[in-house]
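Support request from a user on the community tier.

User writes: "When I paste my structure tokens into the form, the page sometimes reloads and wipes my input. The last time it worked, I copied everything first. Here is what I submitted, just in case something in the input itself triggers the reload:"
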């Protein structure tokens, strides 16, 4: 939702002449794990007055392989009223020799979304350049004058994995007379540091020689590893709407009065929608009925219209057209609740697979998503309004475990979204498996997923029956399925659970040893690969707590007996607990298996300890049961 997002191309215009950038001059440590190297990136920000800010940008990026092509494409995001000038692009080969040059007229101009110009005031200029060989270097410079002064970007080294940095600078010159606040956030892992030169109204920030963050096993989001500097003016302009942001309260009042109140308008049609629902019961029951009604008649479409793309669509427009974005759908749902006499709050959030929260001590315009929160006597109800499939009062992994800016008539209230415990984020699996003398198995299973594990299995909802079967076959590919069929699939939108049954047959599950067979203890599990790393450079993160609870009943063939079973096992660690047990009951073997994983960020020194923990689990899952023919 932020306006100034130019992928890989923020930079300063102190250098407007072409240089030579041979790839041989890149240090080896910056090539390691890198698909692209930012050679020189600089940004000058001139704040002239409350409604005028100028960005002078230069970036030089060497693309080492095809994985980083998208990172290098010159792009300029803008809105109506912005002035774009001095656009220059030069392409260099690996020796640093100039190959091609481009100007503003070579750029394509399009809506900054994939759904057409009708839905967006946001525009993007992009240069459609296709490389013929690697590596190559792109030098890109331009100036941009903007009337909106609320979106001063953070200064970070980079925001993606497998990108390294030689040098990046960010100069901010404040001529406006308005107080400019800034805050430096150091790297919690000392991965990099920012250098600062303070000359009163001019400040220069610099990063140098920062290696790439490899997208290795369990590496946290780069935002959690790297330093950054944030900026915010005490007074700002957004498409002619002036306000102040000296506190979350003041900013919330401006947001409520300027962005939400003008579109918090009901209509006779919306009133009749609520009347037709014949609401009764508790607040929770009423909210659920309204929410599931709203889901049944709307769909998500990206919209970036109105006051810089931050103001929601009018609720009657959503009601008539049946679509909207997160802002419009949340505002429509809020209007329905208002008509039912149920207070709710428009809540701005950072939607990201790794939780990112707002700084309670540094108010600024931020966030990329909107949800609703409804306070009740039993606690808060949280609504994700963009999905037709998600359960009532369930937030997905991309919005749990962080704070939101709840906009009220009295200002902003910073609130915490739910965090699912391992018991709430659970896979329950009950299997009945027949061991056959031809080394095949036939089985039936019941599966249930809740919490974050509900989120990861919600994709099944949109699949055909064949696609469901194929998806299961792919997910559990360690079994040699001859056939597999998913039945009785249910998305329980009241309890936030995905439930289904499986019927399956798999070949070569057991291994013949004379008149005996040997087979592993656990047939269906989520496989993983864990490798020790003696040179681990970064911490690792388990982003979610979860629990897997399995019960497997093996039926052994007629005239066979159980010769050997593994010992019961218990593995405990700082990262979680694993338990497996074996019980022989007539011609059956009952295996119970439970895994409980804790979320958290752990030091790099503990990584091999974690790998060892996971390998022990894999070994226990693969422990062998021996059955033999009766003599």
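"...and here is what came back when it finally went through:"
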């Amino acid at each position: 939702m932020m306006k100034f997002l130019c992928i890989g191309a923020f930079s300063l215009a102190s250098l407007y002449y072409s240089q030579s950038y041979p790839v041989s001059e890149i240090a080896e440590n910056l090539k390691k794990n890198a698909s692209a190297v930012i050679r020189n990136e600089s940004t000058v920000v001139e704040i002239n007055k409350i409604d005028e800010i100028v960005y002078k940008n230069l970036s030089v990026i060497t693309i080492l392989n095809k994985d980083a092509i998208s990172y290098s494409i010159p792009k300029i995001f803008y809105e109506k009223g912005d002035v774009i000038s001095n656009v220059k692009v030069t392409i260099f080969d690996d020796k640093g020799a100039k190959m091609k040059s481009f100007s503003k007229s070579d750029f394509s101009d399009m809506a900054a979304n994939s759904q057409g110009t009708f839905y967006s005031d946001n525009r993007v200029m992009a240069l459609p350049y296709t490389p013929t060989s690697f590596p190559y270097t792109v030098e890109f410079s331009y100036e941009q004058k903007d009337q909106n002064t609320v979106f001063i970007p953070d200064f970070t080294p980079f925001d993606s994995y497998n990108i390294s940095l030689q040098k990046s600078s960010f100069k901010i010159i404040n001529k406006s007379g308005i107080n400019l606040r800034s805050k430096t956030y150091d790297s919690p892992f000392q991965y990099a540091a920012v250098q600062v030169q303070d000359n009163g109204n001019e400040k220069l920030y610099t990063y140098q020689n920062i290696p790439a963050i490899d997208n290795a096993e369990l590496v946290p989001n780069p935002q959690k590893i790297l330093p950054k500097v944030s900026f915010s003016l005490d007074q700002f302009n957004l498409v002619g709407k002036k306000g102040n942001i000296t506190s979350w309260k003041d900013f919330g009042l401006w947001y409520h009065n300027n962005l939400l109140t003008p579109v918090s308008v009901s209509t006779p049609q919306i009133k009749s929608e609520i009347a037709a629902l014949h609401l009764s019961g508790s607040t929770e029951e009423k909210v659920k009925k309204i929410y599931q009604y709203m889901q049944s008649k709307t769909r998500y479409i990206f919209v970036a219209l109105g006051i810089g793309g931050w103001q929601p669509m009018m609720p009657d427009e959503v009601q008539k057209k049946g679509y909207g974005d997160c802002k419009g759908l949340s505002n429509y749902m809020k209007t329905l609740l208002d008509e039912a006499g149920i207070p709710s709050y428009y809540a701005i959030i950072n939607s990201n697979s790794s939780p990112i929260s707002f700084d309670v001590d540094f108010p600024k315009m931020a966030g990329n998503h909107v949800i609703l929160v409804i306070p009740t006597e039993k606690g808060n109800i949280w609504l994700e309004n963009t999905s037709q499939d998600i359960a009532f009062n369930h937030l997905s992994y991309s919005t749990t475990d962080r704070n939101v800016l709840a906009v009220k008539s009295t200002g902003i209230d910073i609130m915490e979204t739910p965090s699912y415990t391992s018991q709430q984020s659970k896979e329950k699996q009950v299997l009945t498996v027949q061991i056959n003398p031809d080394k095949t198995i036939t089985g039936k299973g019941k599966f249930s997923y809740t919490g974050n594990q509900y989120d990861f299995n919600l994709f099944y909802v949109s699949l055909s029956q064949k696609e469901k079967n194929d998806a299961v076959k792919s997910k559990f590919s360690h079994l040699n399925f001859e056939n597999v069929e998913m039945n009785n699939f249910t998305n329980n939108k009241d309890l936030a659970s995905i439930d289904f049954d499986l019927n399956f047959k798999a070949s070569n599950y057991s291994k013949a040893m004379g008149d005996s067979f040997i087979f592993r203890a656990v047939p269906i599990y989520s496989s993983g690969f864990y490798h020790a790393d003696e040179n681990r450079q970064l911490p690792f993160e388990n982003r979610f707590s979860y629990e897997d609870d399995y019960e497997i009943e093996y039926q052994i063939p007629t005239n066979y007996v159980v010769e050997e079973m593994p010992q019961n096992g218990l593995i405990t660690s700082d990262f979680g607990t694993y338990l497996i047990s074996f019980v022989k009951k007539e011609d059956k073997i009952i295996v119970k298996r439970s895994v409980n994983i804790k979320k958290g960020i752990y030091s790099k020194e503990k990584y091999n300890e974690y790998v060892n923990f996971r390998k022990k689990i894999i070994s226990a899952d693969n422990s062998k049961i021996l059955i033999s023919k009766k003599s």
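Agent notes: The reload is a front-end session timeout and is unrelated to the input. Residues 283-297 form the longest helix (15 residues). The CA atoms of residues 239 and 307 lie 6 Å apart. Escalated to web team.
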